[in-house]
Structure formats: C-alpha cells, structure tokens
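Weekly puzzle thread! Below is a chain. First person to post its structure in token form gets bragging rights.
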Amino acid sequence: RDDWLVACNGLRTAIDDHPADGTRTHHWIASDPTVLHVASVTASDYIEFTDSYAGIPVHNFAPPNLYNDALIDLGDVPFMMQVFSNHYGMYPFEKYGNTIVPMQTFGAMEHQTITTLGATLIDGQHGGAVIIAHELAHQWFGNCVTPLTWKDVWLSEGFATYSEQLYVDEWQGADAAAAYRYSNIIEYYKSWSNNAGPQTIYDPVYNMYFAPPQYEKAASVLLALRCRFGEQIFDQILQTYLTTYYNGWSVTEEFKAVCEQVSGCDLTQFFQQWIYGSGLPSVECALFFDGSNMRSYVKTGSNTATDFYLHIPVHLYTTAGEDSVLIEGGATITQTDHSTQFTDVNSAVIDPNHWILTRNETLHTLQINQTYAADSQVVLFWDSFWDEVPVESYSVYRALAQEGPYQYIGSTNLTSFADDTVTNNQTYYYRITAVIGSFESLPSDVFSATPSVFPLDQGILVVDETADGNGMQGLPNDIQVDDFYEAVIPASNTTWDFIADGAPTLTDLAQYSTVIWHDDDISFKNINVMQSIMTEYLIGGGNLIISGWKTANYLDSTFRDFLLGGQEVQISTVADFDYGEATGLSTTDIVPDPNKLPVFMNGLLQFGLAFEDYSDPIYNYHSNAAGSLNGFPCGIKAEPAGTLLLLGFPLYFMTDESANMFFDDWLPYLGEDVSITPQDTPSNPHLGLSVWPNPMTSSTGASIRLSLPEKTRMSVGIYNIRGQLVARIADRTASAGNYTLFWNGRNDNNLPISSGIYFVQIKTPAITLSKKLLLIR
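Winning reply:
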C-alpha cells in the first residue's frame, strides 16, 4: 500500500511508486553479514523518524498512536549506542533502528540493525528503556559475534543482560546499577532457581534455551569476571573477543581462551563451576587486622556437587573513609594476607554492590550475647568465633561512651570475662575481638552495663511462681503451696507471688541475701524471663535456691554455660523418682510425698531431672526401677559469687520433714539465721513501725523496723511532705515476724534526695502506720 512504510535490515536505497494500483516497492540492502534468525521485514502505517550516532543513521518506525511516546523513549538510543561503544568498541553495523509492533509473545527481538519492540514497551516515560538497551547490546553480542550452537546461547543472552546494568550505571548512577544487579539479576535468578532447581548455563535442554540460566545467571558470570579483573581489563576482554570473532561464530571455549589471554589467568575452575557446573555457592569469611595488614579466611559451600572458588569484594569502613579488598577462597578454608590503606577498620560488608551471585554470604564476627552487671563488677558473655579459624584468645575493650574511645582491659581464652575494675552507677560500653597472633578480628557489637550496689540485707525472699491449681492431688492451690513453705522454711522471710505481683526486678532481688524460687506446677513456666536477672543477682553475691517441676529444663544455654559449666539437663518421662539420695552437705534424703503426687504416679515422681556429669551434687537421683537417670545428680550446687542450689524436683511434692531438713542443712550454709521462725510471736502483738536513727544522714541511712502480727500484704514507702512517693522500700506479702528494712536516702532511680522532713509509711489491708523522719545531708 502506498500509505505504508517498510522497515528492514540494512539501508533503504529506494522507494518505487506504482500509482496505477496504489502500491509502492521498498528496496533495502543489508551489506553486512547477517545472522539468519535475526532477519526481519515489517510493514504498517508507520511514521518514520530519524536520529544518528557518530555518523551512523538511526531509523525508527512507530505507529501513529505511539509516535509521540516513541519520540521520547527512542530519543535515548544514541546515548545507549555511545555507552556500549565506549565499553565494547564502535557499533558494528551500517545502521540501527527500532520498529514498534503489537507483539504478543515476548517483549522485543534483536533483529539485526532493526530491533522489533513490543508496543507495551513504549509509554513516553522510559518504562522500557532497559529492554531497549538489552536489544541494542545484541548488535555486538549475538549479531556481530554469534553463538555457533544453541549450547552456547549464553554468549548472546548473558551479554545483553549484563549490558542492562551497564546502561543503568551510565543512565542513573552507580547506586541504581547496584540496586538493579541485586533485584533484576541476582535475586531474580535465586528466586527462579528456588523453584526450578539447580541449572547449568551451557547446553541447556531444548525448552530452556531462553530461560534465566542463559540470561541472569550468565550475566552474573560476566559480573564476576568484571569484579575480579576490574573494568579496564574486562572491557579489553570483550573488545578483544569482538575483534577476534567479528562478523563470525564463537563457542564458549573460545571466549574462555580470550579471557585467559587478556587476563593472564587460568580460568578452568571458573568456567567449570559457573558455565559447565550447576548450583550456586555460599560463602563464609572472617577478617583479621594488624595495622594496615589484613588476613582473610574464606570458605565456600554449594547446593550441588560443584565446588566453587570465589573472588568476592569486601568493603572496609573506618572513621577516615572506605576501602575495598578482593578476598578469595574455595571449598576448604583459604587464608590470604592483604594490604589496606587504613589502620582502624571497624566494620565490613561482603559485596555491598552485588557483583557476585551467591545463595548467602556470612561475615563472621563476635556477638556479645549477654552482659551482667553486679556490685562493682560486670561479666560479659559472647559466642565462640567461627570454628574454621584458629582463634588463640579474645581481647576485651571498654569505653565510657558508645562511640569510644575504647581501651584494652584484658584478654581471655574463654567466651566470658569478668571486669572488676568498675565503679558502681557508671555505665560502661564493651566490645570484643578474637586474636590470632598479632591479628585481631573486627570488633563485636557494643554492649553496655551499669554496675550498682546490691544491699543483700533483707534476709530471705520466697518467690512463688506456681500457677494456682484446683487443690486436688497433684494440683495444689495457692494456699496449700504457701502454707507448705511457711511450715518448712525455718527462718523469717518475705514472700512474692509471681502470678499476682509479676516478675521481680533485679532491684527487688538485690535487697535480699537469699532468694528461694519455687515452681510447683507441671505446665506453666516463667523462669525464662528471669535468667538474666538471676545471673546478675548471683554474680552480685546473692544466694539462689531453685526448685520446680521440669523447671531446670527451661534454663537456656547461656545460664547453663556460665553457672553450670555447660551442663545439659536430662529428664525422666516415667514415674521412677523414689528419692533424692543426700550427698555433700545434705544430711537427709529428700523423699516424695505420695499424698501430694497425682494418683497415676503411684507414689513416685515423674519428670524428675538430672545433671549427668555434674561434679558438685547435693542429691543423687534414686530410681526404684533402676531408670536411666539412676545415680545421676538431681540437686547441684554452683558458686559463681553467691551460691546457686538447683533442684531437679519440686520441693512442694516432697514430705514436709525432708523439705524442712533441706532448709535446715542449707540455709545456715548460705549465712541465713534459722533461729527465728515465721511462727514466732512478734515482740509487738500489733502492727509495729519504728525508725532509727532519726534524724538520719546520707552516711548512716535509716533502719526501718516492722512487727507483723500475722501474714499479710504490706507496702513500705518513703513520702515527702506533699504526700508524694519518693522511694518504694517493699511491696509484697510477708509472714508474721519482726523485720528490719534499710533506706539509704535515695529515690527509686538511685539518686540522692535533698534534706528535709519525710514520712515512713507501712500499709496493710487492715491498717496504715506512719513515722516522721528527718534527713540531714
């Protein structure tokens, strides 16, 4: 038709009009050698518009409805030609152009010198720019140099996909290119392969010629070469390859030979793992520093039988700037020494710009997993370093501000460190390094701790963590449990109900010299929220007794590693605990009470716990059925600073006599006075309150003496003359008896309060008493 235009490979030489029948003949000649599968003829009611790059004509053909958008979107083509010419060498053909058609099957096709674009790529907002660039890059790779067989199709599609991020770099900048590599190449392929499974790039099966292994995975191979050799040498590789096989055929081994010729490296392993092998690598590494010298330890893994040897960039960060180093390693650990331009590297990131396709990357560093602050002491714990690295010791650094400066304070061969050179109420910041000879690892994350005074002067606190049962055999209610402990503990004590009052804080525990924690129900366990606090309490010199049904099994590895030497807990799932055989300072066996146990246990305790190899037992597991735990420790003692007594059974379900003997044996050992029992008659048959000395000073403090005629809930606080609470001294249930509390003249935030008149007040459900107190500073 004479109102249509024709677009074709090569150059148009003439158009002949035929008025008689309303047709025209269009003459096109392609002078360059042309690959058969990229020949093309299209005809439509096109509007033709032209451009040029370096004297090379650019002819574009757009349907009328897309003409205005095409002017915008295809206006970038000369810039694209410049980008690729700069890297690959001059555009290889006599012309370039694009024709737009309503293509349904795919987005575009790289017909030689006249790419065919699907209409959906043209929107006037450069939405299809990357695909337009992809097809242009095929003029170099695929058209000028063509894969000889379909086995080598990656030499076309992988290079065009690589070119996408190259264009994005020049178009939108390095950060945009890095993001494109991550999202559109690396993550795209990983997501696809998670479903499709491991694939090879070379010689794909018939229906996989144009799939992600030949596009995104192949592009990642070129990215890895570009990263290893640098942009200048990699561009030289590509230009040499194009010159050598210009307007001809090529196979994979020929491209490999060019890479080796230009780079001077043997790339047999590289091509074997990436091109001929299947799967994806993972990489683990550790970095150690000695001034400007760096030592890397690298090991790769694979999700197939393919072994990978990687060269992967690591970026190093300092207060002065940033450096990058290419580290390397294979399936066995590789140690390599490097030089850096900085001496104070404090952090690093593996491949932040996404050059290497991996399943995952792990930079091993130290992680402080817990700090415990006690009276004039801070204890740190961290995980062991990567076991592939021959760490000799750990160095500990401390600062008074999170940003530093950090000073070396000591070293250890363990994964814990006690700092006893601290001042109470000062916050300290810590970080750890692993040491190999004169090299130190990257520093750990920073942890802070604030040591403080532990008064430990209020005697015994009994914490009831038992869930309230229905009172039937095996399911005691709160009154039954409270009455049992009131009867068997031969000393004055204060009680805390976990269910009613919530978890006690470290400040709460630190007032008491001994804490008895009991958990006498099978199902509900809350000790996991208390382990850090309990450890700090023990480090601060407090004594802790823990008993419960399966309770020790809920202690995490950090608690066990530090306090119990990593002791694992064994549990008996059958009812076979006949008694706990006394050992150590225990004088009497601990015996289950059949009248309290569930009927189905037949008088023997089920779910008893034992500590197989513990060296300081206080009871040994005795089973009348000679069970697997028979003879193992079921009650143990540890003394990190204070004393921990950990029982593998619930005390409530023992006989009153044997439980009472347990406390008779051990409370004096813990320094507790057992001469006053909770049943003793108080000196005042009524609620009593006295304060001495009065006036008090900040140096003397004040002793607050209470007399409780019966077990009751009490709250003791210090109030100012406006009636505002200044300090909470106690708030819990206490048994009948005489008590002495201490106030040091500080508020609840441990800050000293000013001189003046204050009131000490005790409140119970029945009565409130107050005493005036004068504080002089």
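Puzzle host: Confirmed. Bonus trivia for everyone else. The longest strand covers residues 281-290.
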